[in-house]
TrEMBL record:
<keyword id="KW-0961">Cell wall biogenesis/degradation</keyword>
<dbReference type="GO" id="GO:0016829">
    <property type="term" value="F:lyase activity"/>
</dbReference>
<keyword id="KW-0812">Transmembrane</keyword>
<keyword id="KW-1003">Cell membrane</keyword>
<keyword id="KW-0472">Membrane</keyword>
<dbReference type="InterPro" id="IPR003770">
    <property type="entry name" value="MLTG-like"/>
</dbReference>
<feature type="compositionally biased region" description="Low complexity">
    <location>
        <begin position="256"/>
        <end position="272"/>
    </location>
</feature>
<protein>
    <recommendedName>
        <fullName>Endolytic murein transglycosylase</fullName>
        <ecNumber>4.2.2.29</ecNumber>
    </recommendedName>
</protein>
<dbReference type="Pfam" id="PF02618">
    <property type="entry name" value="YceG"/>
</dbReference>
<keyword id="KW-0456">Lyase</keyword>
<feature type="site" description="Important for catalytic activity">
    <location>
        <position position="136"/>
    </location>
</feature>
<comment type="similarity">
    <text>Belongs to the transglycosylase MltG family.</text>
</comment>
<feature type="region of interest" description="Disordered">
    <location>
        <begin position="246"/>
        <end position="272"/>
    </location>
</feature>
<comment type="function">
    <text>Functions as a peptidoglycan terminase that cleaves nascent peptidoglycan strands endolytically to terminate their elongation.</text>
</comment>
<keyword id="KW-1133">Transmembrane helix</keyword>
Length: 272
Protein backbone atom coordinates (compact mmCIF):
# COMPACT_ATOMS: atom_id res chain seq x y z
CA UNK A 1 0.00 0.00 0.00
CA UNK A 2 3.01 2.30 -0.02
CA UNK A 3 2.55 5.47 -2.03
CA UNK A 4 -1.14 4.87 -2.60
CA UNK A 5 -2.45 8.20 -1.33
CA UNK A 6 -0.02 10.67 -2.83
CA UNK A 7 -2.74 12.37 -4.88
CA UNK A 8 -4.81 12.95 -1.76
CA UNK A 9 -2.00 14.44 0.32
CA UNK A 10 -2.42 18.08 1.23
CA UNK A 11 0.07 20.31 -0.58
CA UNK A 12 0.51 24.05 -0.91
CA UNK A 13 -1.92 25.47 -3.44
CA UNK A 14 0.02 27.07 -6.29
CA UNK A 15 -1.01 30.65 -6.93
CA UNK A 16 0.56 31.56 -10.25
CA UNK A 17 0.70 35.04 -11.73
CA UNK A 18 0.14 35.14 -15.46
CA UNK A 19 0.23 38.17 -17.74
CA UNK A 20 -2.29 37.63 -20.51
CA UNK A 21 -1.68 41.02 -22.14
CA UNK A 22 0.04 44.32 -21.57
CA UNK A 23 -3.23 46.16 -21.04
CA UNK A 24 -4.87 43.52 -18.84
CA UNK A 25 -4.54 43.12 -15.10
CA UNK A 26 -2.44 40.07 -14.16
CA UNK A 27 -4.61 37.28 -12.82
CA UNK A 28 -3.91 34.34 -10.53
CA UNK A 29 -5.00 30.76 -10.89
CA UNK A 30 -5.93 28.11 -8.38
CA UNK A 31 -4.68 24.59 -9.08
CA UNK A 32 -6.82 21.77 -7.67
CA UNK A 33 -4.86 18.48 -7.83
CA UNK A 34 -6.52 15.17 -8.63
CA UNK A 35 -7.70 13.36 -5.52
CA UNK A 36 -8.08 16.36 -3.25
CA UNK A 37 -11.00 16.12 -0.85
CA UNK A 38 -13.65 18.80 -0.69
CA UNK A 39 -12.24 19.96 2.66
CA UNK A 40 -8.87 20.60 1.01
CA UNK A 41 -10.50 22.52 -1.83
CA UNK A 42 -12.45 24.65 0.65
CA UNK A 43 -9.26 25.51 2.55
CA UNK A 44 -7.44 26.33 -0.69
CA UNK A 45 -10.19 28.70 -1.83
CA UNK A 46 -10.16 30.43 1.56
CA UNK A 47 -6.41 30.98 1.27
CA UNK A 48 -6.53 32.02 -2.37
CA UNK A 49 -9.24 34.61 -1.72
CA UNK A 50 -7.74 35.60 1.64
CA UNK A 51 -10.89 34.75 3.52
CA UNK A 52 -11.25 33.57 7.12
CA UNK A 53 -10.92 29.79 7.49
CA UNK A 54 -14.27 28.06 7.01
CA UNK A 55 -15.72 30.72 4.72
CA UNK A 56 -15.96 28.52 1.63
CA UNK A 57 -17.41 25.57 3.54
CA UNK A 58 -20.17 27.86 4.85
CA UNK A 59 -20.94 29.08 1.33
CA UNK A 60 -21.67 25.66 -0.18
CA UNK A 61 -25.37 25.72 0.64
CA UNK A 62 -25.94 29.09 -1.02
CA UNK A 63 -23.80 28.49 -4.11
CA UNK A 64 -26.62 26.99 -6.16
CA UNK A 65 -24.54 23.99 -7.23
CA UNK A 66 -25.97 21.74 -9.96
CA UNK A 67 -25.33 18.42 -8.27
CA UNK A 68 -26.99 15.04 -8.88
CA UNK A 69 -29.84 14.20 -6.54
CA UNK A 70 -27.81 11.41 -4.94
CA UNK A 71 -25.25 13.95 -3.75
CA UNK A 72 -27.79 15.54 -1.39
CA UNK A 73 -26.04 18.89 -1.70
CA UNK A 74 -22.55 17.53 -0.96
CA UNK A 75 -20.13 18.49 -3.78
CA UNK A 76 -17.53 15.85 -2.83
CA UNK A 77 -16.43 14.21 -6.08
CA UNK A 78 -17.66 17.11 -8.23
CA UNK A 79 -15.03 19.75 -7.48
CA UNK A 80 -13.22 18.86 -10.67
CA UNK A 81 -9.40 18.85 -10.52
CA UNK A 82 -8.14 21.55 -12.87
CA UNK A 83 -6.55 24.99 -13.05
CA UNK A 84 -9.09 27.72 -12.32
CA UNK A 85 -8.61 31.45 -12.96
CA UNK A 86 -9.04 33.75 -10.00
CA UNK A 87 -10.64 36.66 -11.78
CA UNK A 88 -11.44 39.97 -10.17
CA UNK A 89 -14.55 39.61 -8.04
CA UNK A 90 -14.20 35.84 -7.63
CA UNK A 91 -16.11 34.44 -4.68
CA UNK A 92 -16.26 31.01 -3.05
CA UNK A 93 -19.68 30.52 -4.65
CA UNK A 94 -18.45 31.40 -8.15
CA UNK A 95 -15.42 29.12 -7.87
CA UNK A 96 -17.47 26.21 -6.53
CA UNK A 97 -20.00 26.63 -9.35
CA UNK A 98 -17.17 26.72 -11.90
CA UNK A 99 -15.75 23.46 -10.51
CA UNK A 100 -19.09 21.65 -10.37
CA UNK A 101 -20.08 22.86 -13.85
CA UNK A 102 -16.73 21.63 -15.16
CA UNK A 103 -17.31 18.23 -13.56
CA UNK A 104 -20.80 18.05 -15.02
CA UNK A 105 -19.53 18.72 -18.53
CA UNK A 106 -16.68 16.22 -18.19
CA UNK A 107 -18.80 13.48 -16.66
CA UNK A 108 -21.74 13.98 -19.01
CA UNK A 109 -19.39 13.53 -21.95
CA UNK A 110 -18.20 10.16 -20.64
CA UNK A 111 -20.02 6.95 -21.67
CA UNK A 112 -20.90 6.13 -18.08
CA UNK A 113 -23.51 3.50 -18.93
CA UNK A 114 -21.43 1.80 -21.65
CA UNK A 115 -20.97 -1.95 -21.40
CA UNK A 116 -22.88 -4.60 -19.47
CA UNK A 117 -20.70 -4.27 -16.35
CA UNK A 118 -21.94 -0.70 -15.95
CA UNK A 119 -25.65 -1.37 -16.42
CA UNK A 120 -26.27 -1.29 -12.67
CA UNK A 121 -24.10 1.78 -12.04
CA UNK A 122 -25.47 5.29 -12.08
CA UNK A 123 -23.19 8.31 -12.69
CA UNK A 124 -22.85 9.11 -8.99
CA UNK A 125 -21.71 5.57 -8.21
CA UNK A 126 -19.21 5.78 -11.05
CA UNK A 127 -17.73 8.96 -9.60
CA UNK A 128 -17.61 7.32 -6.16
CA UNK A 129 -15.66 4.34 -7.51
CA UNK A 130 -13.36 6.69 -9.42
CA UNK A 131 -12.60 8.55 -6.20
CA UNK A 132 -11.54 5.27 -4.58
CA UNK A 133 -9.40 4.39 -7.59
CA UNK A 134 -7.78 7.83 -7.45
CA UNK A 135 -6.89 7.35 -3.78
CA UNK A 136 -5.80 3.70 -3.99
CA UNK A 137 -3.83 3.40 -7.23
CA UNK A 138 -0.11 3.90 -6.81
CA UNK A 139 0.33 4.80 -10.49
CA UNK A 140 -1.82 5.72 -13.46
CA UNK A 141 -1.01 2.31 -14.95
CA UNK A 142 -2.56 0.59 -11.90
CA UNK A 143 -5.85 2.48 -12.06
CA UNK A 144 -7.58 0.07 -14.43
CA UNK A 145 -6.61 -2.89 -12.25
CA UNK A 146 -7.75 -1.20 -9.04
CA UNK A 147 -11.06 -0.38 -10.72
CA UNK A 148 -11.41 -4.03 -11.69
CA UNK A 149 -10.76 -5.13 -8.09
CA UNK A 150 -13.52 -2.81 -6.86
CA UNK A 151 -15.98 -4.02 -9.49
CA UNK A 152 -15.11 -7.68 -8.92
CA UNK A 153 -15.66 -7.36 -5.19
CA UNK A 154 -18.97 -5.56 -5.67
CA UNK A 155 -20.12 -8.24 -8.11
CA UNK A 156 -19.30 -10.98 -5.62
CA UNK A 157 -21.00 -9.21 -2.73
CA UNK A 158 -17.69 -8.80 -0.88
CA UNK A 159 -16.89 -5.81 1.31
CA UNK A 160 -14.51 -3.44 -0.43
CA UNK A 161 -12.15 -3.19 2.58
CA UNK A 162 -10.27 -0.21 1.20
CA UNK A 163 -7.96 1.74 3.47
CA UNK A 164 -8.73 4.92 1.55
CA UNK A 165 -12.29 4.93 2.89
CA UNK A 166 -10.95 4.56 6.44
CA UNK A 167 -8.60 7.48 5.82
CA UNK A 168 -11.55 9.56 4.64
CA UNK A 169 -13.57 8.69 7.72
CA UNK A 170 -10.65 9.67 9.96
CA UNK A 171 -9.77 12.75 7.88
CA UNK A 172 -6.18 11.70 7.35
CA UNK A 173 -3.76 10.50 4.67
CA UNK A 174 -1.56 7.56 5.55
CA UNK A 175 -0.31 4.28 4.16
CA UNK A 176 -0.65 2.60 7.54
CA UNK A 177 -3.99 1.33 8.81
CA UNK A 178 -4.17 -0.47 12.13
CA UNK A 179 -6.59 -3.25 12.98
CA UNK A 180 -8.43 -0.94 15.38
CA UNK A 181 -9.02 1.52 12.54
CA UNK A 182 -11.08 -1.09 10.71
CA UNK A 183 -13.53 -1.25 13.63
CA UNK A 184 -14.52 2.42 13.65
CA UNK A 185 -18.21 3.28 13.48
CA UNK A 186 -18.61 5.12 10.19
CA UNK A 187 -20.62 4.75 6.98
CA UNK A 188 -17.23 5.05 5.25
CA UNK A 189 -15.84 1.97 6.99
CA UNK A 190 -15.75 -0.38 4.02
CA UNK A 191 -14.44 -3.16 6.26
CA UNK A 192 -17.65 -3.21 8.29
CA UNK A 193 -20.18 -2.09 5.67
CA UNK A 194 -21.08 -3.61 2.34
CA UNK A 195 -21.19 -1.75 -0.95
CA UNK A 196 -19.91 1.70 -1.79
CA UNK A 197 -19.41 4.51 0.71
CA UNK A 198 -22.29 7.03 0.81
CA UNK A 199 -20.34 9.68 -1.13
CA UNK A 200 -17.13 9.93 -3.13
CA UNK A 201 -14.03 10.14 -0.93
CA UNK A 202 -12.30 12.79 -3.02
CA UNK A 203 -12.42 14.48 -6.39
CA UNK A 204 -11.21 12.14 -9.13
CA UNK A 205 -9.53 13.17 -12.34
CA UNK A 206 -10.06 12.05 -15.91
CA UNK A 207 -7.68 9.07 -15.70
CA UNK A 208 -9.51 7.57 -12.72
CA UNK A 209 -12.87 8.04 -14.45
CA UNK A 210 -11.57 6.35 -17.59
CA UNK A 211 -10.26 3.46 -15.49
CA UNK A 212 -13.72 2.82 -14.04
CA UNK A 213 -15.42 3.09 -17.42
CA UNK A 214 -12.84 0.82 -19.07
CA UNK A 215 -11.34 -1.36 -16.31
CA UNK A 216 -8.51 -3.72 -17.14
CA UNK A 217 -9.83 -7.27 -17.69
CA UNK A 218 -8.94 -9.59 -14.83
CA UNK A 219 -10.23 -11.66 -11.92
CA UNK A 220 -8.23 -9.87 -9.22
CA UNK A 221 -9.69 -9.48 -5.74
CA UNK A 222 -6.63 -8.27 -3.80
CA UNK A 223 -3.69 -5.94 -4.21
CA UNK A 224 -0.84 -4.57 -2.16
CA UNK A 225 2.01 -2.24 -3.08
CA UNK A 226 5.02 -4.14 -1.79
CA UNK A 227 7.38 -1.32 -2.76
CA UNK A 228 7.17 1.73 -5.03
CA UNK A 229 6.49 0.57 -8.56
CA UNK A 230 5.60 -2.96 -7.43
CA UNK A 231 1.87 -3.31 -6.82
CA UNK A 232 0.78 -6.94 -6.93
CA UNK A 233 -2.72 -7.99 -7.94
CA UNK A 234 -4.09 -11.48 -7.43
CA UNK A 235 -7.30 -13.47 -7.12
CA UNK A 236 -5.70 -15.95 -4.73
CA UNK A 237 -5.80 -15.13 -1.03
CA UNK A 238 -2.79 -17.29 -0.17
CA UNK A 239 -0.69 -15.52 -2.80
CA UNK A 240 -1.92 -12.20 -1.52
CA UNK A 241 -0.88 -13.01 2.04
CA UNK A 242 2.61 -13.92 0.81
CA UNK A 243 2.75 -10.48 -0.79
CA UNK A 244 1.58 -8.93 2.48
CA UNK A 245 4.31 -10.83 4.35
CA UNK A 246 6.90 -9.43 1.96
CA UNK A 247 5.52 -5.93 2.49
CA UNK A 248 5.75 -6.43 6.25
CA UNK A 249 9.32 -7.72 6.08
CA UNK A 250 10.35 -4.66 4.07
CA UNK A 251 8.79 -2.28 6.59
CA UNK A 252 9.55 -4.11 9.81
CA UNK A 253 10.44 -1.60 12.48
CA UNK A 254 9.18 1.37 10.47
CA UNK A 255 5.70 1.47 11.99
CA UNK A 256 4.16 0.66 8.62
CA UNK A 257 3.89 -3.12 8.82
CA UNK A 258 0.45 -4.56 8.25
CA UNK A 259 -1.35 -6.98 10.50
CA UNK A 260 -1.22 -10.41 8.82
CA UNK A 261 -5.01 -10.48 8.93
CA UNK A 262 -5.59 -7.42 6.74
CA UNK A 263 -4.06 -4.99 4.32
CA UNK A 264 -5.19 -2.47 1.78
CA UNK A 265 -7.81 -3.93 -0.51
CA UNK A 266 -7.60 -7.24 1.22
CA UNK A 267 -10.09 -9.06 3.38
CA UNK A 268 -9.62 -10.19 6.90
CA UNK A 269 -9.89 -13.98 7.26
CA UNK A 270 -13.30 -13.64 8.91
CA UNK A 271 -14.67 -12.06 5.74
CA UNK A 272 -13.68 -15.01 3.60
Amino acid sequence: MAGAVVAGTAVAVPLLTMNSGTEQTPSAVLVVPEGWRASQVYDAIDKALRLPPGSTRKSVGKAGLKLPRDAAGNPEGYLYPATYPLRKGATPESLLRFMVDTAESKFDAAPIAAGPQHDAMNPYQTVTIASIVQAEAATEADMGKVARVVLNRLERGMPLQMDSTINYALNRNTVHTAQDDTRIESPYNSYQRMGLPPTPIGNPGADAMRAVLNPTPGDWLYFVTVKPGDTRFTSDYTTHMRNVAEFNSRHEGTGRAQSPSRTRSSSRPSAR
